[in-house]
Write a structure and sequence with these properties.
With about 210 residues, this protein is an alpha+beta fold. The chain has 8 helices and 7 strands.
């Protein structure tokens, strides 16, 4: 079916006739499918999401509805949402407690400085993901391959070697970097990208030279 918008109107034409012509030629507004009414979501699924502690955004994504629609049906069906956990006193509250994580089940939660508890496994996964993303960015900016042999098949086998060890502020390990992207990029400019084999050879030669 064809698409139309009010911007398609030519100068001198009023807007009034457009609904008539849209109906006549079976035109529909751009994005009509996206905003078309989909009816009520699955009530049992909605109740299950709430029991599992899912957020409104998660429920909306899983049920293919907007957050406003999810909130509307929760209110219409009187499905209570769990109360948001209040902040705790970081000076007296325990550092680690056991709770149920939506992703990992019953596990340990650590107290953050803001006064909220957060799943330690979720935190660990987020840090690891950040390290990998920064590392991929640095490798791409450094050319994406070994400066000596051109190896580029596995990013995990590419490593940063500092040209001058005296200028080294911190290591850019193959496990990733838990620094800001700006600091990591600045540090990478002091390095040359090598594959693991050549990096080991360069370090070996460097150590041998320093022992002479």
């Amino acid at each position: 079916m064809a698409r139309w918008s009010r911007s398609d109107a030519r100068p001198g034409f009023t807007r009034a006739p457009w609904p008539y012509w849209a109906n006549k030629y079976e035109l529909s507004p751009a994005g009509a499918e996206r905003f078309a009414a989909r009816g009520a979501p699955d009530r049992e699924a909605l109740e299950r999401f709430i029991r599992e502690g899912a957020t409104l955004q998660t429920i909306a994504d899983q049920s293919d509805r907007s957050i406003a629609t999810v909130r509307y049906w929760l209110n219409k069906w009187s499905i209570p949402r769990p109360q948001k956990r209040a902040r705790v006193d970081t000076a007296t509250a325990p550092r680690v407690i056991t709770r149920r994580c939506q992703r990992h089940g019953v596990t340990s939660f650590g107290l953050e400085g803001r006064g909220y508890y957060r799943c330690l496994l979720c935190r660990q996964e987020r840090v690891s993901d950040w390290r990998r993303r920064v590392q991929r960015t640095l490798i791409a900016e450094a050319g994406g391959k070994c400066h000596v042999c051109g190896y580029d098949r596995c990013p995990a086998a590419l490593q940063f070697h500092h040209r001058d060890p005296a200028e080294k502020s911190f290591a850019l390990s193959h496990d990733g970097v838990a620094r800001s992207i700006a600091r990591a990029t600045a540090e990478a400019t002091k390095c040359v990208l090598l594959c693991a084999n050549y990096h080991a050879e360069v370090k070996s030669v460097t150590r041998s030279s320093s022992n002479v």
